[in-house]
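Page 37, continued from 36.
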């Protein structure tokens, strides 16, 4: 197969991503991450690469507008994937506190809280700050996301449901599911920005 040009990648991945192009990029990222991470971690790569590739694809779709064509699109994408993977490896001990995973279910109601905190016994002041942050994120997810966006994020980001199964349950396809999660993340980030905050600000409260 002939290599796609940068312009072809952008055209195929912009808007509703082309399934063949998305699968091709997914395979490229998978192979690249396995090669890069093989000398950096003793963890079973089969258990982590899929998550890293999924997160990388979402970031790449989110950042398409920032690609300037100064390198090959695949090289640019691989750099994003490596940054994602290394960042996640550094945060493994509390990665379940990412913005997309602040969701649990309690007594049938939506409830959002980090599962792992570096300090299990925060001071009263920090406990109050954390509680306020949790309430804010809960409000954003409940009030700002559509039901399908909440369902998609819960299935994929919290429950770890395979993308094919989540897509089937939502009556959609894999590419549309990527777009659904992508749009939800963008909306949450925008609403945080409206409050003068970033996802990193949210995470910092729990360090």
């Amino acid at each position: 197969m002939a290599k796609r040009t940068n312009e072809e990648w952008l055209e195929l991945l912009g808007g509703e991503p082309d399934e063949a192009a998305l699968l091709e990029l997914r395979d490229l990222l998978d192979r690249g991450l396995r090669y890069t991470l093989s000398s950096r971690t003793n963890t079973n790569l089969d258990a982590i690469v899929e998550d890293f590739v999924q997160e990388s694809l979402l970031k790449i779709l989110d950042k398409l507008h920032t690609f300037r064509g100064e390198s090959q699109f695949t090289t640019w994408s691989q750099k994003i994937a490596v940054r994602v993977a290394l960042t996640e490896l550094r945060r493994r001990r509390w990665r379940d506190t990412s913005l997309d995973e602040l969701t649990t279910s309690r007594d049938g109601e939506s409830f959002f809280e980090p599962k792992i905190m570096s300090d299990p016994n925060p001071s009263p002041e920090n406990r109050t700050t954390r509680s306020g942050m949790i309430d804010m994120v809960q409000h954003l997810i409940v009030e700002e996301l559509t039901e399908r966006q909440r369902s998609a994020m819960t299935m994929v980001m919290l429950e770890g449901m395979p993308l094919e199964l989540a897509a089937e349950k939502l009556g959609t396809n894999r590419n549309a599911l990527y777009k659904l999660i992508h749009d939800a993340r963008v909306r949450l980030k925008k609403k945080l920005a409206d409050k003068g905050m970033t996802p990193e600000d949210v995470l910092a409260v729990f360090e």
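The beta strands are 104-106, 109-111. Flag for discussion at group meeting. The chain is about 65% helix and 5% strand.
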